[in-house]
Design a protein that fits this description.
By secondary structure, the chain is of the alpha/beta class. Helix 3 runs antiparallel to helix 7 and helix 4 packs across helix 5. The longest helix has 28 residues. The structure holds glyceraldehyde-3-phosphate.
């Protein structure tokens, strides 16, 4: 890519198509507590887009609006509202029959669908995700919600029976834990957050949700849908710093579930502040540094194509991104040449431009951080092997490919979460395996090769290092029905459409001895539908 093209990347920013443009700054003043959209007139945080506009000779981030910076006081109001709704497990929501909870969820998803254009527009402007990925994120979330309701129906059908073992009858169902604090990540501010929030809610928990650092305004069009679709206090949406809001609540000991996607350092600080950690259920998606291992007999074209999209989709800002590439020494020159050539063909530009892949970065300090990683690798002997790799203007960084990377460099160990691709060669397969054994991360790996013996030999040691071994394809979370999890510092708990229903609930049962008195009691309860839990009604 020519330097001039990179430096002029923001030239087209003012020319966003009418239906994707933002004409007015959104001063978002409301937050949702106890079913009420309360107005905030305290301090706010400005929201700036990664998309920059020219001011004089400089490119500056376009201002999109602002959101409330709530304090502990409002966070505790949200907690009170959640406690009232849960009512120690006796509230309307936690005791509501599954069928009715599903109806609330359907009302929400219908109202959500009406906001698609607005949400997709803010996804582009707030985090710089391209149009097709933003649209995909929205549609995937809608599908996730619908699949979740179907999965819950199935679960409920399986549990709509009374079992007998020995002389004990039992009905086993899954019940909620209580109050769930939910925080998602900025790279999937809708999908990943909702993949926590929706199963938590539908299992009967009540939720206090704080949007991610970036991707906050895009929740605004959904606030009314939340308000109108659920009983008051079941979902509360608050804004501000994680420490002042969720951090403060955690110290109260009143949070039962901590659902969080982010880094392990923050997760540990928040978890440790719970006075009774034994009472806290944590569901965490954390950092990762998924390697690709390209074997000597790999189909290079396929490996390059998967490694390009694996490492650079959404500028590498995916927890599942390929963040280090191990390539066999016999093919590394060929692989690097093909990788760099393919990178040259990637379109860069503004998120709404058709076919664009490389876009500006939402985090203010990210270009500086990426430069630090590149400088460090170069100082320790790596070269930037693609033309103008790492060139940067304002919030935009053109991807850099570094080779050969080694253990003395930060890029070897640290998660870059951005457009920089470290490559190193290996002679013996024991080298990348050792890297993974010693790594603090344990999410996924991709292996590329054509020999079934070699692949089989790799699969067996690697499945105990990570939770998903991808053969001849990049790492990814989807399809959402498959388990998404990680070892070591990469996750706690497993998410998938069905697994999420389990992590946000606990098995609970009613048991009784087989005798005439109990048979009479149970028959009367079932026949006259006296209980919502002890029931054999089959959900159609
Ligand atoms: O940031 C992590 C996401 O869960 C990755 O999801 O593999 O579908 O991009 P994805």
């Amino acid at each position: 890519m020519q330097e001039a093209e990179i430096m002029n990347v923001f030239e087209s920013a003012p020319a966003a198509p009418e239906n994707m443009n933002i004409h007015h700054e959104l001063e978002q003043k409301v937050y949702l507590v106890g079913g009420e959209l309360k107005t905030w007139d305290g301090p706010v945080q400005d929201v700036f887009s990664p998309v920059c506009v020219k001011q004089g000779n400089e490119y500056v981030r376009k201002r999109l609006g602002s959101f409330p910076v709530l304090t502990e006081k409002e966070s505790f109001e949200a907690l009170q509202a959640a406690q009232d709704a849960y009512d120690l497990g006796r509230g309307e929501w936690p005791t509501m029959p599954v069928k009715k909870r599903i109806a609330h969820m359907h009302a929400f998803v219908n109202a959500m669908k009406e906001q698609k254009q607005e949400v997709v527009k803010y996804l582009m402007w707030e985090i710089g995700k391209n149009y097709s990925d933003s649209e995909k994120e929205f549609d995937r979330t809608v599908e996730y919600i619908i699949d979740t309701t179907e999965a819950l129906k199935n679960l409920d059908r399986k549990n709509s029976r009374i079992e007998k073992k020995g002389d004990i009858y039992a009905q086993i169902r899954r019940g909620p834990f209580g109050i769930t604090a939910c925080m998602g990540p900025y790279n999937y501010p809708l999908n990943e957050t909702f993949a926590l929030l929706i199963p938590a809610l539908i299992m009967g928990n009540v939720v206090i949700f704080k949007p991610a650092r970036h991707g906050v305004l895009l929740i605004h069009p959904l606030l009314k849908a939340f308000q109108q679709s659920f009983p008051k206090g079941v979902i509360n949406v608050i804004y501000g710093s994680g420490r002042a809001t969720i951090g403060a609540l955690m110290k109260s000991g009143k949070i039962d579930v901590f659902a969080f996607i982010g880094n392990s350092e923050s997760a540990n600080v928040i978890k440790k502040s719970h006075p009774k950690p034994n009472r806290l259920r944590s569901v965490l998606g954390l950092e990762a540094k998924n390697p690709a291992i390209v074997l000597a007999d790999a189909d290079i074209e396929l490996a390059v194509s998967e490694c390009i999209s694996g490492s650079l989709s959404f500028n590498g800002q995916r927890c599942t991104a390929l963040k280090i590439l191990f390539v066999h020494e016999s093919i590394v020159e060929k692989f690097n040449a093909a990788f760099v050539a393919k990178l040259e063909t990637l379109k860069m530009g503004m998120p709404w431009e058709k076919g664009v892949m490389i876009t500006p970065l939402p985090e203010k300090d990210k270009p500086e951080f990426i430069k630090g990683l590149i400088d460090d690798a170069v100082a320790h002997g790596a070269k930037v092997i693609n033309k103008n790799g790492g060139a940067s203007v304002a919030s935009f960084v053109y991807p850099a490919v570094l080779y050969p990377v080694n253990a003395s460099m930060r890029l070897y160990h640290e998660e870059q979460f951005g457009p920089v691709v470290p490559i190193l060669s290996f002679k013996n397969i024991a080298e990348p395996i050792q890297y993974m054994v010693e790594s603090n991360f344990g999410q996924q790996v991709s292996i590329f090769g054509t020999d079934s013996n070699e692949i089989a030999e790799l699969v067996d040691p690697l499945v105990n290092q990570v939770c998903r071994v991808n053969v001849n394809c990049q790492c990814q979370r989807g399809p959402d029905v498959y388990p998404f999890n990680g070892r070591k510092d990469s996750a706690e708990g497993t998410l998938s459409v069905t697994a999420a229903l389990r992590v946000f609930s606990i098995r609970t049962m009613v048991a009784m001895k087989d005798n005439e008195l109990n048979k009479k009691i149970v028959s009367e309860i079932l026949d006259q539908r006296k209980s919502k839990f002890l029931s054999t009604d089959y959900l159609l």
